[in-house]
Structures are given as C-alpha cells and as structure tokens.
Amino acid sequence: MKHLVIGGGIAGIVALETIRRHDSRAAVTVVAAEDHPPYSRPMTSALVAGTASPARMCLRPETFFADLGITAVIGDRVVALDIEPRAVHTAAGRRISFDRLLIAAGAEARLPDVPGADLDGIFPLRTIADAEGIVRVAATASRAVVVGGGLVGCKAALALRHRGLPVTMVITSSWPLSQQLDDAAGMMLRAEMEESGITVLPGRSVAAFRGNGGRVTAAVLDDGRELAAELAVVGKGVVPAADFVSRKHIRTGTGIRVSEYLETSVPGIFAAGDVAETFDLAGGGWRLNAIWPEAAEQGRAAGENMLGRRTAYPGSLARNVIRAGRLDLATAGVTVPPKGETGFTVVDHLDHRRGCRRRLVFHDDRLAGMVLVNRIAEAGRLMQLIRTRRPLTLPPDLLLEISLGDCGWPICI
Amino acid sequence: MKTVQVHPERCVGCMQCMTACAVVHSRAGTLFGALAEVPRPRPRIHVGAGRWNEGFPNRCRHCDPAPCILACLPGAIFRDPAGGTVLIDPDRCINCASCAMACPFGVLRFHPDLFAPAGKTVAVKCDNCLERQQEGLEPACVEACKSGALTFEESDAALRRQTNTVAAALSPVDDSWPPAGIRHAELLRFRRTLTELRRVAGR
Ligand SMILES: Cc1cc2nc3c(=O)[nH]c(=O)nc-3n(C[C@H](O)[C@H](O)[C@H](O)COP(=O)(O)OP(=O)(O)OC[C@H]3O[C@@H](n4cnc5c(N)ncnc54)[C@H](O)[C@@H]3O)c2cc1C
Ligand code: SF4
Ligand code: SF4
C-alpha cells in the first residue's frame, strides 16, 4: 500500500505519525511546499512579537521524516492530481503515484483585492517567511496598520504592539473577533486592546494602499482618510489551498468536503485540516473550521482511516482562546443565535466578585455555544457538552454555577 | 502498569489529596515549608463539589489519544513513552490555554510554578508523581487519601473489581429496578460507578 500526504502542517504530520504507529512497513511519501521542518503556525505571531525564535517554533526535529522512514519531497508543490490512474504531479516535474492520498495542504491567507496591495511592506501572516518579512520591515517602520479584526489580525496587532510599534487596527465591525464575540465581550476586548496602545478604527475598511518607490507609505480608508504606515499586516481570512483539486472529480464546497471518516467523494482520497470542510457540530451542515486542534484531530482520524482502521470523526467545532492583556477569552460554537431562528436561549451572567463574564447559548435542551471572559481554565468541560450535543439534565443557570477554574480551596486560587 | 484509579463515590471531600499534591510539588517538601514558598506550590488534583455537594476528586486521566496533546499549539504536551503519562514541558508552554479548551475534564490550571522558568505562567497538571514512582512510592494523592477514593492499581484489577461492584448493585433485591426502598445516595453511587466503569472501558 502506497500512502501519500500533501502538506507538512499539523494535519499532515499527525497523519504521518498515526500511519507509522500502526504500520512500520508501508511506503509513505510526503510532499511539503515549505522548506522548513514542521513548525507551529500559530506561533508565527510570537515570532513577530519577538517572544519566540524559529527554533522554538519547531514541532518536530529536523530529522523527523527520516526518523519515521518517510520519503519527503520538501520545497516542491503538488500542482495536479490524477484520479485514474492515481498520481500527483509537482511543480518540479515529479510524478508520484499512490494508493491512498491525504490532502492536508492547509489554507492560504486571503490577500486584499485593493489598488496598491502588491506594494512592498504589505504582508499576510501565515508562514514563517511572512513573519520574518514583517520583522524585517518592522525594524525600520515607525507605524504599522493591521487590516482585519479576526484572530490573526488581533494576534498581529498585539504582537506588533509588543515590539513597541504604534499600531492602528482597521476593522469593518464594531469590535474585534466579531465572528465569535457578542457585543459585551467584544467591547471588553476592544477596550483592552486600546488600553495596550492599539488604535482601533471600527466600521472602516481599507480601500487602497499608497506607496513610494514600490514601498507602502499609507493605507487609504473607505472614508478617504489616509493612515501613514510603512508596514501593513492583512488578516482577511484564509482560502483552502486546493487549486490542484478538480471540482469536477472531488466534491468541494468552501473546502474539500469530507465524510465522517475524512474521506472525500473519491474513495481512498482523504482530506484533513484547514483544506477540509467538515460536519459542523454547532450549526449542522458542512463548514470550514480552520483551527489547530481540529486539524490535528482530523489528521489523526484520517491516518487511521487510510490504514483501513475505521475511525469516525464526529465533526468540528469552532472555538477560540485568546489572552489579551488582562483579558482571557474563550468562545465556542454558536455565540450569537442566528436572526430569525427559534429554539435558542441565551443566558448572560456577570460575576463582579470573580471578575468574569459568561454567556451560554442553548438550543432546545442542548448547550450550543459559549463566551467566557476570564476564569477559562475549565472551559473544556463546557466544550465537551457542546461537542457531544448531549441533552442537558441540569437547569441552564446551574451550569453557570459550575466553578470554572476555581475550586474554592485556599491553596488553589 | 499501575495507574491511579478514582472512585468518586468514596470521596468525602476532605481535600487531603490536594494538600499532599501541593506539598510534593514544593521545594521544601513539607506543608510548613510549602506555605512560605514563592511561587506558591499548588495542587494538580482538584476536589470539586458535585450537585449535592458531594466531593469529586478531579485529576488528569492521561487520555490516549489525548485531546490536549493534539490541541497544544507549540507541541509542549507529550506522552512519556515508558508509562503513558501525559506531561507538559513548561519551557515550551506559551500559556495559550488551547489545552484548557480541549480537556474534557477541566484539569488544567495556569500559574507560575517551581518547575517552570522563574516568573513564567504555564499550564500545570498531574504528572503521576513520576519521581516518587521511580523511588517505588505511590503518587502522593493516593497515599494521602484515607477514604479509598484514590487507589493505585492495575487497571485490569480495577475494572474487575468495579464490574463486581456494579453486579452487586444490580443484583435483584426486588423484581423492579430501581428497587423500591433504594436510597438516593445508593442510586447516585451506582450511577457514578457506571460512569467510571464506562470511562475505564474507554466509552
Ligand atoms: C498567526 C496565526 C495564528 C493562529 N492562531 C491559532 C490559534 O490560536 N488557535 C488555533 O486553533 N488555530 C490558530 N491558527 C490556525 C492554525 O494555524 C491552522 O488551523 C493550522 O495550522 C492548520 O493546519 P493544517 O495542517 O491544516 O494546514 P497548514 O498549517 O496550512 O499546513 C499545510 C502545509 O501544506 C503546504 N502545502 C500547501 N499546498 C501544497 C501543495 N500543493 N503541495 C505541497 N504542499 C502544500 C503548505 O505550504 C503548508 O506548509 C492560527 C494561524 C495563524 C496564521
Ligand atoms: S489534561 Fe485532560 S485531555 Fe489531557 S490527558 Fe489529562 S485529562 Fe486527558
Ligand atoms: S497552555 Fe501550554 S500546554 Fe496548554 S496548549 Fe498552550 S502551550 Fe500547550
């Protein structure tokens, strides 16, 4: 049996390890475009902040593929996929045949479609190369602008601020992380970011970038204002890196659609991680939940299934944890019930004494989502209730009483 | 291989395990000394109060596969290949709390610790007292527990014993279940045993 994995991100490496754990002899090949030993993508923001070195970001040793006896094609990309006979073609002209394929190519940062977006000094934040580019420009820049208020935008703004740069964040919504946070928690995060010295411009977008000699000098807002900046980081979301996959052959929505066994519409071809569209446990339907823990879980389950060890993956759940200054935020599932939909109950609770805030969203008799502000250490217990979709036996407000992160014992506080 | 087994139905909520755990993870190794230390030694086991205010000793289950390992962003959580204990490298931990979201049991805590670089807040959880085990000692929480809620035994043996407990609980006293005169506490105990049994059996 010939196994092939496309992508050396977390989904790919967990799949490779899983395959090797159960089968020490199968022929296994990986094609990984990035010329770098497996590293932690979320830590690219720590590289920007200057709190981590590239060495610290490595998840596995340089000899990882060799140690596992895996044929590694590094620094080359898959450009085409043949279903019959089964093979991929790479940019460097290689042809690699396979019996079982895992597409774990992740996602690519979406770049802004505005005039001037190709100027030097404008970066997405996705790879080590992006982070190194940002650090290089940040060394001489006097101001930075961050476009977008999602997780990557927030992390980039906090990281640049940590370096001491004046940072302006341009967000189309009223508060950062608007996809996950309700207004109260969102305004708390915005206030916290402003307190750390970041200027937040809500309800605005960038219409163009202006430059001088090929380098960015300013961002032009939709209201015509200009923000001088020699560095711009754009966090406008990601798109699955699946351009080598023909939609004619493999069912694809926003990402590559997979079954609960991580198999695509073509038997023997699997997908996992940011490239895959999985069943969404909170909302039902298929969705791209492009987050690390799900990518790793999917990689594991995909590896098992590639070996024929049927391992179900029930689905993915959007979630987020961010620590910003004194604020710890944890969100999961449905945090703001969709307008016009019935069956939702929202319980909001503010605990002044412990300095925390909770929002629990119920759908019929199940917990569907949460927003926790501070005291998040036991958030996983609520996550488990959302994930398993078990009907609740406790009355909703009793759930708020569960002492999350505080067991009341004096030496524990 | 011996592991710590939790029998919540026997917990009396005395929190002796918590104290013992904090002490064993202190520099001094004594309660008196531990109380004066900075950073303050803290327990890795947490006794929570259940719905009826009954005690519930909660500690890391060293799951396999472990959701926290898969969720850890810098790869700071790993499994000790010898005994299966799930451990955190405090040096690599970036205090991101991704593990807290992933752990279905809510056993992680975040604070400065004797075993972490000075002043750094890190994720902390049960390490199965690996050092004590190397010296042939039981984990500190087990040694401290006087009510038998924490035992250190082969999981096979524990499973067999629990099967017997459940079998005994199910033995018909009456021809209807639950038996007419059964006390609430007994029902509760039965439910918990069953839950624990399912957990041990990995369901
Ligand atoms: C700054 C930042 C912060 C983040 N913070 C968090 C966080 O706090 N929590 C969280 O859960 N998630 C976070 N994420 C998201 C998380 O990093 C991703 O969900 C995760 O990395 C997805 O892993 P993956 O293996 O699916 O894809 P990737 O990590 O994208 O890996 C895919 C790999 O495949 C390679 N590849 C792509 N196409 C090809 C091809 N055609 N041929 C060969 N190789 C190819 C790519 O170069 C890449 O190396 C963050 C992301 C960023 C950028
Ligand atoms: S920390 Fe939680 S998820 Fe990780 S092994 Fe322990 S119990 Fe399991
Ligand atoms: S807090 Fe530490 S141990 Fe937990 S996921 Fe983050 S880095 Fe890993």
Structural commentary:
- The complex is a heterodimer of chains A (413) and B (203).
- In chain A, strands 3-2-1-7-19 form a five-stranded parallel sheet, with helices on one face. In chain A, strands 9-16-10-11-12 form a five-stranded parallel sheet.
- Chain A has 413 residues and is an alpha/beta fold.
- Chain A has ten helices and 26 strands.
- Chain B is an alpha+beta fold and 203 residues long.
- Chain B has two domains: 2-165, Alpha-Beta Plaits; 174-201.
- In chain B, the strands form four sheets. Chain B has a two-stranded antiparallel sheet with strand order 1-8. In chain B, strands 2-3 form a two-stranded antiparallel sheet.
- The model of chain B is unreliable at 171-187 (pLDDT under 50).
- Classes of the chains: A alpha/beta (413), B alpha+beta (203).
- One iron/sulfur cluster is lined by residues 71-74, 76-77, 88, 93-99, 123 of chain B.
- Give the CATH architecture of the largest domain in chain A: 3-Layer(bba) Sandwich
Which small-molecule ligands are present, each listed once? flavin-adenine dinucleotide, iron/sulfur cluster
Helix/sheet category of chain A: alpha/beta
Q: What does the overall shape of chain A look like?
A: globular
For the terminal residues of chain B, how far apart are their CA atoms?
A: 20 Å
β-sheet strand percentage of chain A = 25-35%
* Overall shape of chain B: globular
What's the rounded overall pLDDT mean of chain A?
Answer: 93
Largest interface: A-B, 40 and 36 residues
* CATH third-tier fold name of the largest domain in chain A: FAD/NAD(P)-binding domain
In terms of quaternary structure, the protein is: heterodimer
Our count of domains of chain A comes out at 3
CATH superfamily of the largest domain in chain A: FAD/NAD(P)-binding domain
Rg of chain A, Cα atoms, Å: 22 Å
CATH hierarchy: architecture of the largest domain in chain B: 2-Layer Sandwich
Query: How many strands, which pairing sense, and closed or not: the largest β-sheet of chain A?
Result: 5 strands, parallel
Q: Count of DSSP helices of chain B? A: 8
Total E-strand runs of chain B = 8
